[in-house]
Design goal:
By secondary structure, this protein is an alpha+beta fold. It is built from three helices and nine strands.
C-alpha cells in the first residue's frame, strides 16, 4: 500500500502538468495558425477563415473569394433559401471556401485531453458550443474578433482572444468572458 501511495504522489502531479503543457502548446498552435491565416489573407487578397469544429475537436484554415462578407440575419436567411433551391435542382451545395493547403494541409485535431469549451465571435455573441465556428480574416487587414475557450482534463482553462486589428492574439491562463476580455483589450 505504501508503494502504491508513493507512486501516486510522484505520478499524479506530473500528469496534471503534462496536460497543462499540452494545453499551452495547443493554444500557441492556434495563435500561430491565426497569424498565418491573416498573413495569407493580406498577401493573396482573398478572405481566409479559421474553422473550429467543436463536435470533432479540430481546426483548419479555409480560403475563399476576396468579396466575402460576414453574415447578417438577412443574409443567412437568403443563403438558406438559395441552398434549398440549389439542393432541389443540383444536389448538395458547393462552398465558396476550400481548404487553404498552404496553411492547413489537413484538419488538425486537438490533443487527447484538450477540448474547445466554446467560441464567441462577432457573428455569434452567444457562445458556440457545438458544430462549426469561424474567425474570418479580410484583405484590408481586419479580422473577426474571436474569443476561444479551451480546457484540459485537469480543468486548466485558457482563453485566446483574436483581435480585429492585425489578428493579434492575447492569451489568458484562465477563463475570461467576452465583456472582461474586450474591456481589458481597450485599456
Amino acid at each position: 500500500m505504501a508503494l502504491i501511495g508513493l507512486v501516486m504522489v510522484l505520478v499524479v502531479p506530473k500528469v496534471g502538468s503534462f496536460f497543462k503543457v499540452t494545453l499551452n502548446s495547443t493554444t500557441r498552435d492556434l495563435a500561430s495558425t491565426a497569424k498565418e491565416a491573416y498573413n495569407a489573407t493580406v498577401m493573396t487578397g482573398k478572405v481566409h477563415r479559421l474553422v473550429y469544429d467543436l463536435s470533432e475537436q479540430n481546426f483548419w484554415v479555409e480560403v475563399g473569394p476576396a468579396d466575402v462578407l460576414l453574415d447578417t440575419a438577412e443574409s443567412k436567411e437568403k443563403e438558406e433559401r438559395k441552398k434549398r433551391q440549389q439542393k432541389e435542382k443540383e444536389g448538395p451545395p458547393v462552398s465558396e471556401f476550400v481548404l487553404a493547403k498552404t496553411i492547413s494541409r489537413k484538419k488538425v485535431s486537438l490533443p487527447r485531453g484538450v477540448e474547445f469549451q466554446d467560441i464567441v465571435t462577432e457573428q455569434s455573441p452567444e457562445p458556440i458550443k457545438e458544430g462549426l465556428a469561424y474567425t474570418h480574416f479580410f484583405p484590408h487587414g481586419i479580422s473577426e474578433q474571436t474569443l476561444i475557450h479551451i480546457k484540459d482534463n485537469s480543468e486548466h482553462q485558457i482563453t485566446l482572444l483574436i483581435s480585429p486589428v492585425l489578428a493579434r492574439t492575447r492569451l489568458y491562463e484562465r477563463r475570461v468572458e467576452a465583456k472582461e476580455a474586450y474591456e481589458t483589450k481597450s485599456r
